[in-house]
Design goal:
Elements (H helix, E strand, L loop, with lengths): L14 H14 L4 H6 L3 H14 L6 H15 L2 H13 L4 H8 L7 H15 L6 H9 L4 H24 L22
């Protein structure tokens, strides 16, 4: 148990979660610790798994989706997700310079990706209360209203995982070795 949360497997998970864990195992070849924590609540595990699948249907390319995820994770200061998405971003062919810049909260070299990084960050930081100028700048970079709303899908997906990992102190998985990250430390527990 980590911070009072169990890292479930199919034998210990509630019935509603066991099937989802089996699906994750079959798709990924292992069950990430995040999913093992979420399994305590079949609704939470289903919500995250469903949103993850829906996020794949946004209008963003795999590179764009990963840059946005990293920007959201940076704002939410989730060390678990930053380590995981660093390696997932590499698998999606995001270049190391871009990954490292987002991990450091710095601008990226590609202007369109930078607009996406900035917009995803401000949506997360401001909890959606962004200015007309922020939306206009995002659109001026080549995005549209669909992309504005698609950022919310990504933010909602990461809200579940980032907050779960804060609550549960989810331990990193072995595939994250070498991608560990120290958060800037802006977030403090109440």
């Amino acid at each position: 148990m980590i911070n009072g949360f169990t890292l479930h497997d199919t034998a210990t998970a509630p019935a509603g979660s066991a099937e989802i864990l089996t699906g994750v195992q079959n798709a990924w070849g292992f069950v990430p610790n995040l999913h093992r924590v979420l399994a305590e609540s079949p609704a939470a595990l289903e919500a995250y798994s469903t949103l993850w699948g829906i996020a794949e249907k946004t209008g963003f390319s795999a590179v764009e989706r990963n840059v946005a995820y990293l920007a959201i994770i940076y704002e939410n200061e989730c060390t678990y997700c930053m380590a995981g998405h660093t390696n997932l971003s590499r698998m999606a062919k995001v270049d190391d310079a871009t990954i490292n810049a987002v991990r450091d909260g710095q601008p990226v070299g590609d202007a369109k990706l930078e607009a996406l990084r900035q917009f995803a960050a401000i949506v997360t930081r401001q909890r959606g209360a962004v200015s007309e100028a922020d939306v206009a700048a995002f659109k001026a970079a080549g995005y549209d209203n669909r992309a504005v709303l698609d950022v919310l899908v990504l933010a909602a997906t990461k809200l579940i995982s980032n907050h779960t990992n804060h609550l549960a102190k989810t331990p990193n998985d072995s595939f994250m070795k070498g991608a560990e990250w120290t958060a800037p430390g802006k977030l403090k527990a109440a």
